Amino acid sequence: PAVIVRPRTPEQVADALRLAREHALPVSVRSGGHGAKAFPNPDGLVIDMAAFDSIEVRDDGTVRVGTAATWGEVADALAPHGLVVTSGDTRDVGVGGLALGGGMGWLIRSVGLTIDIVESVDVVVPDGRYLTASADYEPELFWALRGGGGNFGVVTHFVFRATKLDAVVGGHIVLALDDLERALRGWRDVMRAAPDELTTAFIALPAMEPGTAPTAQLVVCYAGDDEVAGRAAIAPLLELPGVVSADIARRPYADLIQQAMTPPPVTMVGGHGLSDFGDDVIADYTAAVRGFDAPTVASIRYLGGAFSRVDPDATAFAVRDREVMLFRVVMLPPDAAAEFVAAAEAPWEPMRARITATYGNFSEKGDPEILPLLYPPATLERLRAVKRHYDPENVLARNHNIV
To answer: Rg of the Cα trace of the chain?
Structure first.
């Protein structure tokens, strides 16, 4: 970028936006810095919000969090109070990016997305005003900020409604990879009957070091500290085909938010989306995961529960009726030839035809063609109206841009 600005006050954020407008500089906003390189900003202005990383636990059960705090820091700050906020899966995920796009975490079935527990948002809009958006003040902006990403302003702080939870019951269940399709069908059947307190995700990882083998596991979180009830809910998962081992215990919620592994420099060939999890989808997904001989990261987040009971019109994340969120990324050398990139994409083509929606926080494409997959038509038109009101010049365009 041409300029990096590190504001320490909302007024300095407004100054940075004014500078960008005066010099016609494209603007991008950095919160935690975890995101992929989806929105490059050559010769533009980056607003680095690193100074806005405070965490304030309040007596009313809410917590005010700066946009540049990370979810590991939030979990650590809340643990002594017996509180949790549903969040990203790894410690270094930034609060701002995740919370503006949705927020799929280990409490998604018991409390919903991160955006579903936002009480208010402090934001500097492109004309320089510093607003607090909530259900009672600037309600359309509040609606748009919960799922519409960084299109409408530069957020400094969020107020979240925390959940009282001293501990969870959960951990990892290791699966063999040789009968993955049958294991995924069994997992789906268990989750269709599971209580809302139980959130699970399937994760397949490549061999990360020489001499090691690819792995597959279920990450399990029962949102309650009653170990007997938690183990009863988890027990059917231990009977799935191909279970190799399990590490299930009563533990702090923060233990499930792990340190992310840093991959070597690679070209990522991705595929993500939301779908109903029928047998045909499972067959195509399994084929896609195992259909190309290169390091592959794959995951499936089982949804439902509180996530699906939110009115689709309540937030800008309107796709609430899907059973799972699917993810697959193939890691290739940075100089991989075009034919290898094409070969890595090919196994995902049958899945692509089945996916009618996707998740913005996991989508690396920055072009407008992805918007209809992020937002249904009525939601997108409503977002465009909010954009016209708060950012008519499209100052904030380095995102899944709503114009």
So the answer is: 21
Q: Could you tell me the two tokens for 169?
A: 């019951």
Out of 134-138, 245-249, 254-258, 340-344, pick the least confident.
254-258
Please list, in sequence order, all residues whose beta carbon lies within 8 angstroms of the beta carbon of residue 307, skipping any fewer than 6 positions away: 108, 109, 112, 113, 116, 320
What separation in angstroms does the CA of 384 have from each of 18, 100, 149, 349, 388? 22, 16, 13, 31, 6
pLDDT by residue (tens digit) across 146-169?
999 999 999 999 999 999 999 999
Say whether pTM exceeds 0.85: yes
Alpha-carbon distances, residue 1 vs 28, 44, 49, 386 (angstroms)? 9, 5, 15, 28
279-331: pLDDT as tens digits = 999 999 999 988 888 888 899 999 999 999 999 999 999 999 999 999 998 98
Q: How many other CB atoms are found less than 10 A from the CB of residue 150?
A: 25
Please choose, from the candidates 271, 266, 263, the residue with its C-alpha nearest in 3D space to the C-alpha of residue 335: 266
Q: CA 161, CA 304: separation in Å to the nearest integer? A: 20
Q: What is the mean pLDDT of the chain?
A: 92
